[in-house]
Amino acid sequence: MQNKQEIYEKLREVLVELFEIEPTKISLQSNLYTELDIDSIDAVDLVIKLKEITGKKIQAEEFKQVRTVNDVVETLHNLLNAPAA
């Protein structure tokens, strides 16, 4: 899971699996909160699931700025492709 398309496809699977969102409702432009009805508790569940999948620690601060599916893809892409410290 390195490129943005792969990340997007995995994220869609997770959103469908965790929150029973219709796959057709999910696009890169979809707003997690207003369009997909994700609340703050759902967001925590999403972060935990993404951490399991990626094996990377996702900072809550990074996720506070996230609004759209594309924001999540960008955040994960940056995290997965960051040089190891």
UniProtKB/TrEMBL annotation:
First-listed, main subcellular location of the protein, grouped into a coarse class: cytoplasm
Pfam family, one: PP-binding
Post-translational modification, as annotated: 4'-phosphopantetheine is transferred from CoA to a specific serine of apo-ACP by AcpS. This modification is essential for activity because fatty acids are bound in thioester linkage to the sulfhydryl of the prosthetic group.
Location(s), subcellular: Cytoplasm
Keywords recorded for this protein, A-Z: Cytoplasm, Fatty acid biosynthesis, Fatty acid metabolism, Lipid biosynthesis, Lipid metabolism, Phosphopantetheine, Phosphoprotein
Gene3D superfamilies on file: ACP-like (1.10.1200.10)
GO cellular component: cytoplasm
Stated name of the protein: Acyl carrier protein
Species whose genome carries this gene: Stenotrophobium rhamnosiphilum
